[in-house]
Amino acid sequence: MSTGTSFLRKMSLHKFRKSISSSKLDAETVVSQQEEPLTPPPETQNVLLLHAARQPYEYTENYPVPKLENDHEVLVRAQAIGLNPIDWKAPDFNFAIPELPYISGRELSGEIVQLSPTISPRLKLKDRVLAISTDYRDLRKAAYQEYVVAFDYNTVRLPPNLTHEEGSTLGVAFVAAALALGVCAGLDFSSVLDGPDLFSLIRNISPSQIADDIRQECLDSIRPHERAQPGDWLAVWGGSSTSANLTIQLAKLAGLKTVAVVDKAKHGLRLANHHAIRTDLLVDSHDPARAVEIIRANLKGKLRFGIDVRGRESATSLLQALSPDNLGSVTDKDAPPSPPSTPKDSTLLSAHLIGLTGLPKQAAPEGTLFHTVPIKLFHEVPEVGEALVGWLERLLAAGLVQPPEIIDVEDGLRSINKGLNRMRKGEISGGKLVVRV
Given a cut of 70, is residue 399 above it in pLDDT? Predict the structure, then answer.
């Protein structure tokens, strides 16, 4: 079953007809673009600028179109932008804003309109692409503008069966999921369409290519014999989010067994009925202590890997559910858990808690390790970026990864503030809000 077909089955009849029409138009556009000459990019464009924390983004005209600065860059004309929670949380809580005025936005889809002469042969003018911007310090790469610069090794060609709207939903979530699983948990993806073995890849490049603040996480955070293997269990707390969606999809493709902790009243049926994100165990999140009890009772000491996508509080709960190898022999499910100790035998296995948005305040208990996702690997190490975008292209073309559900679509850059307000209010859950440019 194709990626588009599976996605459409989750929509109402109205949205089904609308999406079919959109897909046909997209296909017609591809043919038309191949026949039409390429129009050079203009000198100026429209953008959204943030001038101060706790203020809305300001629609601004006649802003310079960004220029290409090195041999790995392409210029993309935006067609659709995927909104992310950090786009409203950063100004509201005044973090991750390196300069003012600031342009935000982390992922978009569009058409390549300019490229450097020595660019990767994988990309060509007029290609329909997803541009993934994890480099929030370079405003040229931000999504809230009509023309965006992207590294070739951070740019993914979209297959014909995906619309621009669908393509804009999955970039950052895919990168976060792949790095969390491949680097922090050591999972090898080489059995899935020749995916990357990131654990080995980053050990075959010079350590000087890896930034100081992530080098320990990349090179020393998990021992080779502790790497996640097919058949191991992974728990994802906050399983309804886009990041969780892609994490579950990639984990399942690589052979892991999965647990999702979610609001079952809102998301249980959707997750249970969706083949790509259906987990082996689905646990309700309303009573965290009860959720931990259910996980421990069902997995009986077999859970060594946990990924939290919500924050410090839920990460603290997930920590309670993990079982290092030296606790795995506990058979009395009613016995209170004892503090884990560092395994003396080097063959014993630690538990690993990966936080996408936060980790517990407490220090990691003995026998358990905390991890933060080294997201900058994607844009700072070309070998990593190229391995991930090439793999994502193959996954999308084969229909093995499906884009998250689109909750709604807004129109125009001016509508981004409205969309972010809807996210602030909690109106967007279990999928993505997209803006057509």
Answer: yes
Residues 128, 251: Cα–Cα separation, whole Å: 27
- Beta strands of 135-175 (E only): which ranges? 147-151, 155-157
User: How many domains, in total, are found in the chain?
Assistant: 2
21 has a pLDDT exceeding 50: no
Same domain, 161 and 284: no
Reduced to 3 states (helix: H, G, I; strand: E, B; else coil), residue 158 is coil
Q: Are strands 155-157 and 128-132 parallel, antiparallel or unpaired?
A: antiparallel
Whole-Å CA distances, 78 to 81, 142, 149, 154, 379: 7, 11, 10, 15, 20
Q: pTM for the full model?
A: 0.87
Percent of the chain scored above 90 by pLDDT? 78
Write out the residue range of the structural domain in which residue 208 sits. Answer: 174-372
- Other beta carbons within 10 angstroms of residue 68's beta carbon come to 15
User: CATH no. for residue 126?
Assistant: 3.90.180.10
pLDDT level of residue 265 (50, 70, 90 thresholds): confident
